[in-house]
Amino acid sequence: MAHINCPLLKGIILAAGKGSRLMPITEKIPKPLIPFCGIPILYLAISKLIDINIKHIAVNAHHLSDMIDKACKSSPFDIDFHVSKEKSLLGSGGVYGQLKQWIDKSDVIAINGDIISNFSIAKLLDNHYNVKKKINVVASLGLVKGKNPSGSSVWIDQNGFIASISKEHPKDADQHYSPHIFSGIQIIDNMLIKDIPAGRPSNIIEIYQEELSKGSVICGFYQDCFWHDLGTPTGYFQAHSQFIDEFLKNGDHSIIKEIGMTTCSCAMNYPIKISYDHKQDITPFEKKYDQHKNYASIEIIENRLLPFNAIGPNLFCGSCRIDDSSIIGPYCFIQSGCNIMENTTISNSILLEHENTSISGIYENVVITSTHKVPIT
């Protein structure tokens, strides 16, 4: 995969959105800095680019842009970051026009700053550049399974070329096209970026639709993978719960590296502990270890070995204090800095960082911040 080391390939992470669907969680923190299993989503996206040897990364920012800028400058990664602050939102297409000078002659691999996935970018790159040897391709979209219930689906033919991006099946009686969901991961050819005007808002999907209408070739590359849009409280929780199931119950230990967590946790020296019930049905491989086993900086431990009451699978990040009388679980995700007081019960919830704040009471199906309890529906 020599092209992955090519200097004419740069990475862009889209991080400018307001996070409206996650309000009020995003009132004081931009969505890309919200943690997934204790690690900022932005850092996981950066890790996926580092893992394919991308050396130059741009991040666009608008909502709470100074926090994005600070997170990049203080990141544990030895990377050349460029933060593009947008005074007004330029949209999913305008970001590339604004960054044309920085992009220069490079192609771009772009990742939405609100997804978590083990989608293989290396395989997407391989497919894109192999096809490009035979035919002029202006972009390749990473696709996941399903038909978009609330927007346009990506319809591809049997050869992996995109026929349309629309809500309904293309009107072509001679062809059958299958619908997929755009993963938020894409490769954009430099010749297409050159045509995107600078300083003007635009939508990348509309740009693709226009290119398709002109006969341009855009590839769709499907992978059956772990993928979640973290844009809603429910999606945010479901991503956490499926992740822990994939790791413990399905035995998918590679998911740790593939979502970027290994690179992040090692760079940040950030400990993560996953607990489970002794009788829980986990994979035979995992049953071989005595008490716990390490994956990078992740420790796996039985609930019966914890000093407090824990039920089912849970995940604990960094340093948190939990009173012995508390009941935690199942599916609790406790971030670093949390102080859980006596006789507190928490289940099916995410507890975000609470420095110098004590948590007490009964919590179920909520994302808990220092100021809000946001329902998970």
Walk me through the topology:
Layout: E1 9-14, E2 35-36, E3 39-40, H1 41-50, E4 56-61, H2 65-73, E5 80-85, H3 91-98, H4 100-103, E6 107-112, E7 115-117, H5 121-132, E8 137-145, E9 153-156, E10 162-166, E11 178-188, H6 190-193, H7 204-213, E12 217-222, E13 227-229, H8 233-248, H9 255-258, H10 261-268, E14 272-276, H11 284-287, E15 292-295, E16 298-302, E17 309-310, E18 314-317, E19 321-322, E20 327-328, E21 332-334, E22 339-340, E23 345-347, E24 349-351, E25 358-359, E26 362-364, E27 366-368, E28 373-375
Parallel strand pairs: 1-4, 1-6, 4-5, 8-12, 14-16, 17-20, 18-21, 19-22, 20-23, 21-24, 22-25, 23-26, 24-27
Antiparallel strand pairs: 2-3, 6-11, 7-13, 8-11, 9-10, 9-11, 14-18, 15-16, 27-28
Describe the structure.
This protein is α/β, with parallel strands linked by helices. Helix content is 24%, strand content 31%. The protein is built from eleven helices and 28 strands. It has helices at 41-50, 65-73, 91-98, 100-103, 121-132, 190-193, 204-213, 233-248, 255-258, 261-268, 284-287; strands at 9-14, 35-36, 39-40, 56-61, 80-85, 107-112, 115-117, 137-145, 153-156, 162-166, 178-188, 217-222, 227-229, 272-276, 292-295, 298-302, 309-310, 314-317, 321-322, 327-328, 332-334, 339-340, 345-347, 349-351, 358-359, 362-364, 366-368, 373-375. Strands 1, 4, 5, 6, 8, 9, 10, 11 and 12 form a nine-stranded mixed beta sheet that branches. α3 (91-98) packs across α7. The longest helix is centred in the middle third of the chain and has 16 residues, at 233-248. The chain is globular. The model is unreliable at 1-5 and 284-294 (pLDDT under 50).
